[in-house]
Target: Arginine biosynthesis bifunctional protein ArgJ
Amino acid sequence: MSESQTAIKKQVKVLEDGRVTTPKGFHARGIHFGLKRKRKDLGWLYSEVPADSAAVYTTNTYQAAPLVVTRESVSVENKIQGILVNSGNANACTGEKGLQDAYQMRKEFAAHAGIQEHLAAVVSTGVIGQHLPMEKILNGIAALVDYEVDGNADDFEEAILTTDTCVKHIGVELEIDEKKVMIGGAAKGSGMIHPNMATMLGFITTDAAIDHNDLSEALKQVTNSTFNMITVDGDTSTNDMVMVLANGLAENKKLTKQHKDWGLFLEGLEMVSKELAKKIARDGEGATKLIEVQVKDARDKEAAGVIAKKIVGSSLVKTAVFGADANWGRIICAVGYSGQQIDPNLVSISLGSIKVVENGLPVPFDEDDAYNYLMNDTIKITVDLAQGNESAVAWGCDLSYDYVRINASYRT
Amino acid sequence: MSESQTAIKKQVKVLEDGRVTTPKGFHARGIHFGLKRKRKDLGWLYSEVPADSAAVYTTNTYQAAPLVVTRESVSVENKIQGILVNSGNANACTGEKGLQDAYQMRKEFAAHAGIQEHLAAVVSTGVIGQHLPMEKILNGIAALVDYEVDGNADDFEEAILTTDTCVKHIGVELEIDEKKVMIGGAAKGSGMIHPNMATMLGFITTDAAIDHNDLSEALKQVTNSTFNMITVDGDTSTNDMVMVLANGLAENKKLTKQHKDWGLFLEGLEMVSKELAKKIARDGEGATKLIEVQVKDARDKEAAGVIAKKIVGSSLVKTAVFGADANWGRIICAVGYSGQQIDPNLVSISLGSIKVVENGLPVPFDEDDAYNYLMNDTIKITVDLAQGNESAVAWGCDLSYDYVRINASYRT
Model:
C-alpha cells in the first residue's frame, strides 16, 4: 500500500452508531401499517433540503412499477428529497394499475411531506404480482408524515426489511476542506441476492456537497466492487436499487474528481457500501456464516471477479461451509467451470490460513484444524491463480436447512 | 407433427426391461471392492467385439485423469471394447500420480479382459483430490473379470452410482434394414449436475452398425437437447461424460446420415438419452419432484434453452416447488434475469394446465388447485414468450432439506 493510501485510510472513521441519519439534515421514520404481520413495513427517509441523487437499478427485464416512477423523479433534476419505502409487497408484474398505484403513492407522499412530486422517490419490496392495498398505503402515508420530523432511524431500517433477520446500517466520518463530512447507509437484502445490483435495497446519505455526475460515476464504480459482488442464491429481483443522496449541508467546497480529497470521499463511500453488502450477505436467507472469497494474482480483474462469484455462488461450496466440511474439491471445481482461462496446475487454495491446494494438487492438512476454522462465523477462502496481479473479492453465505424452510413457504 | 414423423415415432419401442445389455453382444458386471461402505463400486461394461465409440466430456478446466486416458484410448481408432468404472473416488486433481494410476487401471483392466489397451476406457466418479487405493482397485479388477461373462447389468448400474438413490436404465428397439436394432443406456447423476455435459456418467450401447463420424455428430446433437438440458445445482463436475458404443452385431447396413432410417435411429438415441437425463434430474440430491420447464414460442432455440435452464436452476423456484407454493413471481423473475431479449408484456406462464400469468400479468387461479398440482411428483412449467416458433425443454428437481443434509456432510 502506498503512503498516500495509508494517509487516506486514516481519515475515514467508522462511527459507533452511524446510520442514514448521521449526516446533517437527514431524518428517517418507520411504522407498521399492516402489510406485514407485526414488523414495521412503511418507512420514510427525508432530507431537509433537496439532495443530489444518483441510483443504480436492477438489471432484471421486469422492473417493478416504483422503479419506473423513481427513475422518472430522479431524471427531472437529479435531486431527491424524500424516499418512501414499503415492504411486504413489491408492486412488480402489476401492469398499468400497478404503475398508477406507484404514481399515486408518490403523489400522496409528496403532498404530505410538503415536497415537490419529482423530489419524491417510491420503493417497494416483497411479494411479486399482487396489487398494493392502496387504502392502507394511503392511511400509512398520512400517519407516517404526521410524526415529528425527528423520527427514529431504527424504525426506518426495520420498515424496509423482508425476510432479513436484522437491520443493517453503518456511518463514517471524514474531513473535507476542514469540514466534517458524514456518510451513512441502511440496507435490506436476504433472498434474491445476486450480482448486477439486482437484488437489494441500499440507501446511502451524505451531507457532502458533490457534483452530480461525479457522484453518479462514484456510485457505479463502488457498486461494482461491493453490492455487485455479493450473492445469496443467484436470483436477481425485479425491484431493487441502491440510491445515494448528497444534501451538501456539510458545506465543503463541491467535491469533483479534481478535488484533492476525492479519493477520500470515494474511500468513505466504498467503506459504507462494502459494509452494507457484507451485512446483506451475512444475513442471507438461512445463513449461519459469511463467506468471503478472494481471488488473487489473476490476469485481469474481471476474471478474478467471475471466479470469486462462481465459488461463493456454488451450492456445493455453500453446503460444505454449512457442514464445516473442508471439501476443497468443490472450490477447485468451481474455478474450473468458471469459464475463465486459468492454468489448473498453478492454482492454490487456502481456507483461512490453512493451505489445502498448492499448484493444483492437494496439500495434507489437519482435518480438525480445518473443521475448527470452518466453525467460525466468517469463512475466508483465498484462491491464488498465479497468473498476474489483479484480484477481486466476493461475499456470500452458506446454504442451510433454513434457506429451504424459508423459501418453501415464503408466499403462503 | 408431419405424417412421416408420426411414422417414425411408431417404430421406436420402449422395452420393459431395457438396459445396456439389451443390444446384442454387450455384457456388464459390478462388484463391491471397498471404496464405498456397502454398495457396489466397481463396474465393467463389455462388448464381444470392438465397438465404434463416441463420447462427450466435461467442459470443466479440471479434467480428471481417467478422462485423459479414455480420450486417448478413443483417439487411437475410435473404438472401445470395455469400460471400467469405479465410484467413490474421482481420481481428479491428483496430478501426475493420478494420471499414472489411471493408466495402470486401464492396463490391468485390458490385460484381465483380454483386450487391447487402447480398446479399454476407464472412468472414475466420487470425491475429488484423493489418490485411488490402487491395491484395492487392482484386486477388484482381478475379481471382476474372473466372473462369468454373463454378468448382471443391475450390478453395473449400481456400481456407477454415488449419492444416487436408484439405478437408471432404459432400452429401446427399432427396425433398420429389416433387422432388429437395440439401444440401451445406464446413467448416474445426483449432485454437480449442470449443463454442458459436465456432470454425470451416461453409457449408451447399441448393436447398430453405424458410421463413426455420424455417430459422433448424433451424440453431440442429442446431448445438447437432453443431458445438457438438466441441472441439479448448477455445479459442473470434473469427471463426467457420456459415451456411446455401437458394435454392429445387429447386422444392419451401416447407418449414415444418408440412410433412410437415420432419423429413426436418431429418434431412438434421443429417447434413450432423454429418459436417462430425466431420471438423473428426478434423482437429484434430495429431490422429491421432477421439474420440466418448457419455453415455447421463442425467437430462437438458444434463447428458449437459456430461459428454461434459468428457471429450472433457480433456487427460489426449486424451493417453491418443494413447498408446493405457486409462487409464479419467482418464475417470471427468472425469465427477467435470463439476459435474453423478451417482451415482458407478452409472457404467459402455466403450472400444468393452470394458467397463472397471461401477457405479463397475474391471472386469478384457485390456490387449492395449484397446491394440489404442485404435490405431484412431476411438475410441468410452461412459459410462452409469444415471440416466435422455437422452443426448448429443460429438466431439474426441487430443492429440499435433504439436499442440504446430503451436501453438508458428503465428504466426511
In short: Chain A touches chain B through 64 residues (CB under 8 Å). The CA atoms of residues 307 and 339 of chain A lie 8 Å apart.
